[in-house]
Amino acid sequence: MDAIVLGGGLMGTASAFFLARRGVRVTLIERRRIGAGATVASFGNIRRSGRHLAQLPLAARSLAIWNEAQTLLGRDVEFRATGHLRLIFDTDGLDDMRRYARAARGNDLTLEELGPDDLRRRFPGLGPDAIAASFSPRDGSANPRLVAPAFADAAARAGACIVDEAPVLDMRQSEADFEVKTAKGVHRAATLLNCAGAWGREVAARFGEEVPLGTWGPQMAVTEPVPHRIAPVVGVWSRAHGAYLRQVERGNVVFGGAVPRVPVAPDPGFAHADPFSLPTQVASVLKLVPALGEVAVIRQWSGCEGYVADNLPVMGASGTTPGLFHAFGFCGHGFQLGPGVGDAMAELIATGGCATPLADFSITRFAA
Ligand SMILES: Cc1cc2nc3c(=O)[nH]c(=O)nc-3n(C[C@H](O)[C@H](O)[C@H](O)COP(=O)(O)OP(=O)(O)OC[C@H]3O[C@@H](n4cnc5c(N)ncnc54)[C@H](O)[C@@H]3O)c2cc1C
């Protein structure tokens, strides 16, 4: 069996890795550099709480792989199960958290509820005005710069052919196979997996499948390094845009949220950081950690991410084209899911079935 994976972000590299381990002859084609799309821009949150319930089985599959990433990939991608703390500042947030915690319980996700005293004792200095919090101890973060190159290298060691910096000039299906013509040569395979991220819509449209996907850039920033004091990833249960932050081991505090995403033109797909969003973000971050008031912000960035209208990704077999599969449009929360997406897509392609339920993500939901 052979396959072409289109797109070398986290989804494409993880898929190539797991396909190669299943003995599929796989070629990964990336038009730019491996991991340099939405993946490298990610905040790096490996969070399950608050996810759409339909995603939790896939998120559980993914978390199990994150826990083994160093062994599987042969290098440290800085996955740390530091826990995910979500602060609550109002009764709406408390109601939402409790409702979600009840609903998520059957999906291997247990959220501890912390009252204000527990919160202050266990996490001094975080959210002094919070009335409560949830804590998910097995979640955490990883380094978005490291993970896609690590999957691509591991895929190559497992036998995959990685073709990067290869603009795609044409792609078509003949009777026998798919043909992808790139600036570096023509590749053919019986299976084509569309992992083109925010650009997956264009690939799907070539095969007659329309997906309501918009391209947007979440706003991120990072501070200068300061002594390491913040262990968990910190977020908020909020009906508005909540801020979130984490402190990397080198001491910098990465943060995002609290402001609307900026629109991004998919061609060329470079997302701009908006300097005017920074004061609002910083004000929100200071509610989470007031001690950051004295710390300098040294950089802002964004990345082009595909958001599907119903906020769920597109995953599974094509509805129009035998041999074509999709895994794109991860709506700002694909980093956690990435390893599980690769493993699940490889299982689906290699065996024709998948132990993890994917029906809610099928592209056929838009066919009507
Ligand atoms: C600023 C930001 C912060 C985020 N924070 C988080 C977070 O904290 N937690 C979380 O879970 N998720 C987060 N996300 C979302 C997460 O990063 C993405 O969902 C995930 O990385 C998507 O991976 P991907 O492989 O689908 O897409 P990408 O990484 O964008 O990869 C797609 C690749 O396909 C290539 N490509 C496109 N078209 C073609 C073509 N025709 N031929 C060949 N190659 C092609 C592109 O060049 C690109 O490299 C964030 C996203 C952004 C932008």
UniProtKB/TrEMBL annotation:
Tell me which UniProt keywords the record has, alphabetically.
Oxidoreductase
State the coiled-coil residue ranges.
none
GO MF, one example: oxidoreductase activity
Q: Note the InterPro entries from the entry.
A: FAD-dep_OxRdtase, FAD/NAD-bd_sf
Q: Tell me any Pfam family this protein matches.
A: DAO
Q: What class of enzyme is it?
A: oxidoreductase
Domain of life per record: Bacteria
Q: Where is the FAD dependent oxidoreductase domain?
A: 2-348
What EC number(s) does this enzyme carry? Answer: 1.-.-.-
Q: What is the official name of this protein in its record?
A: NAD(P)/FAD-dependent oxidoreductase
